[in-house]
Design brief:
membrane; transmembrane helix; 2 domains; about 60% helix; two-stranded parallel ribbon; transmembrane; about 525 residues
Amino acid sequence: MRRIVEELEVRGGTPLWLQPQVALGLAVAALVWVVVRCAWVSDDAYITFRTVDNLLHGYGLTWNVGERVQAYTHPLWMFLMAVLAGVTGEVFLTSIGLSVAVTLLSLWVLARKVALNLWTAAAAVGMLALSKAFVDYSTSGLENPLTHLLLAVFFLLLIKERGLLWLALCTALLMVNRMDTVLLVAPALAVAFWREKGGWARKTGLVAAGLLPFWLWEGFSAVYYGFLVPNTAFAKLGTGIGAWESAQHGLFYLLNSLRLDPLTLVLICCGALLGLRSRDWRKAALAAGAVLYVAYVVKIGGDFMSGRFLTAPLLVAVMLLATFPLPKRLLAAALLLGVTSPYAPLWSGADYGLQRADVIDRHGIADERAFYYSHAGLLRVREPDHPWAEEGKRASTSGYPVQVKATVGYYGYYAGPGVQIIDPFALGDPLLARLPFFYKADWRVGHFERVLPRGYAETLRTGENRLADKNLARYYDKLALITRGDLLSQERLAAVWEMNRGAYEHWIDQEAYKTGAAIGVKRR
């Protein structure tokens, strides 16, 4: 018996717990343990889940039944969820299970295919386990885990020099999952294109063929929805806010992350610097992509979800770090910073977020998991019991088929297909998304409220155009033809073309709706 114990404790003169395989196994186990303990599903995820529910009940890819509007930004993630939810019959545990499984696949690619050796693999996984942003958005019901996996695969394809076609194919899947993530891989794809052997025609053909999934989705989107980008892009990006004002908010986003989760930004900086200094063009290009994406996040004003848009560049940075021999001082510093961070995921429990006064900072940037965990965390519930979910359940039996409601995730899902929702933030509303937001000096990114045009609610309740603004009424007729008309009618397809080239934009009084003058409201 004693000899067996000695053999277990020592192999080749090295204690078992100092074997690299064991270190990696412990790091992976720690990350999975932390992710599961912190697992939750956000309100925003349920905006997508309402579309999933409508699809599974035969109402098509709609948010409000009868109106073809893309209220989700991540088609590939949405389809994965639809397939699994069709089997399980629910979305809460399904989204968490899918997220954890996809995260494990990402770790496998990182540890077994990308990392320099098992020791650096263990260190890289450990770093991710200490990142609040990575742990928070390894679940949440949003597309981040699938983005992580596709980035890991792209990294592997690039490092192993699998060729331009496969890089383009992975890029296409990234774009179908979330369009703006193309910035993370664009520099690497461009350099790979330049270095590929053969003429320009051959190389262009390879990229075009690889991007086929993206072309197919865009073609479907143009015909089915009438637009090439999701409705959420119109709602969040077409705000009219000045570039400097938006960038300032983007910088506040980084400062918020530095306060709540300093390790994430430190790792992004370290990985990017090492990559940019590398003589390996592949690593330098990937590092450039991470920097480009962070710059883009700053430009668009960041997000209201603390850390959400930093997880993808973080993964790229950590994968870059895993390809270098890492100094022990760097690892010790990362460990110390990770475990001493104010809201380190290692110490998170079922009471996370309770009795905290700083869940939302003065710039409107929230620790979203802290905000929702008590009502939508795996350690507390098996489906959300948030007041907005309960409000949605009441709306489903209220007898009022048209409701005006902001923060429409839980509410919209539990209200069900029988309730049409007018969302002042315009995420699922095609008309409001194309109006300028009602400007307020204390605006919050992702929450750009529109004024409701006079007669709009009556229009949706009656099915007749009751809009008081005659020019806007003409605009709405064209928009309704696109979102509600016969899919392949010549009249609708003509309206799609004219709408996308901006032929009807002069019918919207931008200043009146931005200031509230259109309904007699004064701007704050």
